[in-house]
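2 proteins. here.
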Amino acid sequence: MTVLAWFVIVSNVIGLISMPFSLRDPNAVALLRYSPLPLEATVAIAVVSEGLHLVAGTAILKRRIWGRTLYAIVALAGFAISVFTTPFKGMLIIAAALIALFLFILYRPAATAYFRQRAS
């Protein structure tokens, strides 16, 4: 669980740090303009999603069972939004595989035992 939690935390910190740099890149902005959503909405959704993923990752690391529920909700909602807004659908295959793998890991009996071992 800790490897998964740290992966979620680190990858989303990197996403938040790199976002301002991406928005200065004309090529990245041009790609984002293919989305049916306005650029500002796309960025807002990304920031909220990454922030909630950070909360979920931290909660998972602290053995809070609600962290896996939060991860599941945010990941699935983000994927659903991406299905309708991402112009390059091929990129979603990797995202779907990672989400499925993480949910499989988070909802196995061993994961439930991990969350139950939380110190009071």
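next one coming up
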Amino acid sequence: MSSFSQIVNSLLYIISGFFFGIFASRHSIFSVMNIRRTLAEKDFSPASLFRLAFSILFIVLAFLVFPSWMASRTTIGAIAYYAVLLFYFSKGWKNSPK
């Protein structure tokens, strides 16, 4: 039987996974748009290379590092994070300008 504190902790982990997933999906879409824009440029400046590196780093952090760290703390929070991240990323991907 689960105690009240375990139930509350699970709910808080689900809520935090939900909100972190929304944040990560929004900024992942921005990162993908930055990558597209940077790769479409003809000449690469140091600023555009930094923007490209930062965007790739954010995508790696959002899709690999943070979820694995969160899964080491709570499985249910990581599942909520991935579900929200993938759902809103796919919606944003379809609606993003090509």
